[in-house]
Amino acid sequence: MRSLSLRGAARKIPLLVIMIFISLIALMPFWFMIMMGTYKTNALYTGLKLVPGNYTQGNLRTLRQIRIDRFYFNSIFVSLSCSVLTVAVCSMCGYALSKYRFKGRNAMITTVMLTMMVPTQLSLVGFVMEINKIGWLNTHIPLIIPPAASAFGVFWIRQYAKNSIPDSVVESARLDGCGEFRIFLLIAFPFMGPACFTLLMLSFLWSWNSFFIPMIILSSLRLYTIPLGIRQLATQFRTDLAAQVLGMTIATIPMLIMFAIFSKNLISGLASAAVKE
Length: 277
Description:
mainly alpha
């Protein structure tokens, strides 16, 4: 028995070596990015940097001068608010489209799917004009409320709810006198937990990395998010590439921590939504 177990372990060694090799290749860009943030900008053009430099403090001083802490707080506030609101709106809408039967339901589902095919750039002019009319221009509100009505989020939750929430459970709750909102909150929402958690992470990631819309909406420096803040290091006279790389490294930390801790939940949520009973 012991020889069989040793033989089975020996067979796994080549696979383990291949997985380690692939992991190292995937981590190399992150390593280069971290190392590049420890050098002066001029030194970055002399070749790949595999070991740390001695200019980390200088790049940190540059980032402090542009108040990167303020941009960091803005990004956290916008991303958290947007992701939580997205889950709240999309979970209710997706649940309603999956479990309720009403006139125009199929037309609404078709409309949601069609809006997923429209590029953001096509509706940009109308979006900016509408935001300006409402008075939301140069505020964080357009970065939080409009993205919450995500067509992908509604479609995602609807597909998951349709396959994971038994109709018999909903009907039993109604027969027991449970209200519709209470059914959604106490019964349906726990069933949709993996899909909602996955949508929360994806929404946070999209909001955190968003650059195009904030660049058009925001004009005050104090409202800038991380991507816009790092862009301040590039001017027509000088580009501090090393400080930009260090800023991108700092901006990547929340994403790396989140995926390191919740990667299993993300994968299970993505896999569960793809399985149909």
